[in-house]
Design brief:
The complex is a heterodimer of chains A (386) and B (86). Chain A is of the alpha+beta class and 386 residues long. Chain A contains twelve helices and ten strands. In chain B, helix 1 crosses helix 3. Classes of the chains: A alpha+beta (386), B mainly alpha (86).
């Protein structure tokens, strides 16, 4: 069981208090697919975006565990899961790789704005022809003088239409070459970069998703993040943070949902007694609690291991699988507990399910995580001797 | 323990369980033969970076640097002591 210091708790409560005031209009935003700029501003004012970043560049200098702990409270307090998703995307897509791999000049120039939330971040990895097959990407970056010239298109880019800074992953080597991908920090206003209209989707509708097109976009060499060819290492590092921060927020959302169901089951009466007295209803809520606490344990256990530099290759895959699947089950159970009220849009219970389904797809589908685990177990390798 | 023995011991334990370390030839192609897959390679480079304090993401590397135990040993000798930029 994690033990948190007074300082960590205070920080969490402070962010939680602000988060609880956000998302009052989340159902309307979900209906219209509108990003909450006002909510962003409020989170910006409270310093949330700088949580894990270097204080020399405007961050709060908190470690990964503290960051996840605080973000969980954002998920608990703020009902606009699209806004929550955009927050996590912003922090992990640009700030995390910049802090770990960026040159001192890049950090000095961009981290303060990322921490302050005055520049919104995104990353562009997925392409229309291949979602999970990152190594098969077609976007290219070719050296020309002091610049790289980027060409290609990227699909399903979270924060795409609101981003000011995008970390674009592009091919600088031969197809299939593991050291052939490079990460570039690209400004939104770069000539040749265009962003498509926001794409309508099933859930997380208030977090804008768009395509990004790169047509002879010139990126200065000093905007390479890490070194040429190190994109896959950077991507791997970012994915770990993305899973822990993004799904840490989801754990908070699951906690809020459970409390709502408990409250409802203890007050809603049918046939002369509260519905919670019915074992079949109680069992669903108990399952929700088990899903929540299992998810919580995986998130913090893996974050702690990553922070202590342990090998978390399997843990990350299992954490992502466990939490994303648990979230869908929890959302389905909530609908069943609420019955007709759970099924109609007005109460926001069905929205939770639509939001939850995405979690089985983004940050590596459930199938990819299982494949990765099988690979780590050596199941796809025939027994051989050297 | 020499670098070569350390690396061999790790590869055998993680990717060739049951194979005696003495049977892994230093020139054996670990990538071509699939002993280390592309997914494994990420994890292996991470281990190597932590073990020998090498900031691989800040260096220009090639898959050939990880093709065999002998190549890995050379890469470690070449990169060890290089520190990440501030």
């Amino acid at each position: 069981m994690m033990r948190w210091s007074e300082e960590q708790q205070e920080l969490r409560e402070a962010i939680g208090a602000v988060a609880a005031k956000l998302g009052a209009d989340h159902l309307e935003r979900d209906r219209t697919g509108t990003f909450d700029r006002d909510g962003w501003q409020r989170l910006k004012d409270v310093g949330l975006f700088g949580l894990p970043f270097d204080p020399r560049h405007g961050g709060l200098g908190k470690d990964l565990l503290t960051t996840v702990h605080v973000l969980e409270q954002l998920g608990y307090g703020c009902q606009d899961s699209g806004l929550n998703f955009s927050v996590s995307t912003h922090m992990v897509s640009t700030g995390v790789p910049l802090q770990r791999f960026g040159s001192s000049a890049l950090k000095a120039r961009y981290l303060p704005e990322i921490c302050a939330g005055t520049m919104i971040g995104a990353h562009a990895i997925t392409e229309p022809s291949g979602g999970s097959d990152v190594m098969g990407m077609h976007t290219t970056a070719v050296v020309d003088g002091d610049d790289f010239v980027l060409n290609g298109s990227k699909a399903f880019i979270s924060n795409g239409s609101i981003a000011d800074l995008i970390v674009v992953y592009a091919r600088t080597g031969a197809p299939g070459d593991l050291a052939g991908i490079t990460a570039f920090l690209v400004r939104r206003e770069s000539p040749g970069l265009s962003v498509g209209s926001p794409i309508s989707k099933m859930g997380l509708r208030s977090s804008p998703l768009a395509e990004v097109f790169l047509d002879d976009v010139r990126v200065p060499r000093d905007h390479v993040v890490g070194s040429k060819g190190a994109g896959f290492l950077i991507f791997d590092h970012v994915m770990k943070w993305e899973i822990l921060c993004g799904f840490g927020i989801i754990v908070g959302e699951m906690r809020r949902r459970l409390e709502r169901c408990v409250e409802y089951a203890r007050t809603r009466t049918q046939f002369g007694s509260v519905i919670g007295a019915n074992q079949s209803v109680a069992n669903m809520i108990v399952e929700m609690r088990i899903d929540l606490e299992t998810s919580q344990k995986w998130i913090y256990d893996t974050a702690e291991k990553l922070q202590s530099k342990a090998d978390v290759a399997s843990d990350i895959a299992m954490t992502k699988l466990v939490v994303s699947e648990a979230n869908v089950r929890s959302a389905l159970n909530a609908i069943q507990v609420f019955g007709g009220y759970g099924y109609v849009s007005e109460y926001g219970v069905e929205k939770d399910l639509r939001d939850a389904v995405g979690g089985r797809i983004y940050s590596g589908t459930s199938e990819i995580q299982r494949h990765r685990l099988a690979s780590l177990m050596g199941l796809n390798r025939p027994v051989r001797s050297a | 323990m020499t670098i070569q023995r350390d690396i061999t011991a790790h590869i055998v334990a993680e990717y060739l369980p049951g194979t005696p370390a003495s049977e892994l030839d230093p020139s054996y192609d670990l990538l071509e033969t699939g002993v280390i897959s592309s997914l494994d390679l990420l994890r292996f480079i991470e281990w190597l970076g932590d073990r020998y304090d090498i900031p691989f993401a800040d260096l220009e590397i090639s898959p050939d640097d990880f093709r065999s135990v002998a190549a890995i040993e050379k890469a470690v000798q070449r990169f060890a002591g290089v520190t990440a930029p501030e």
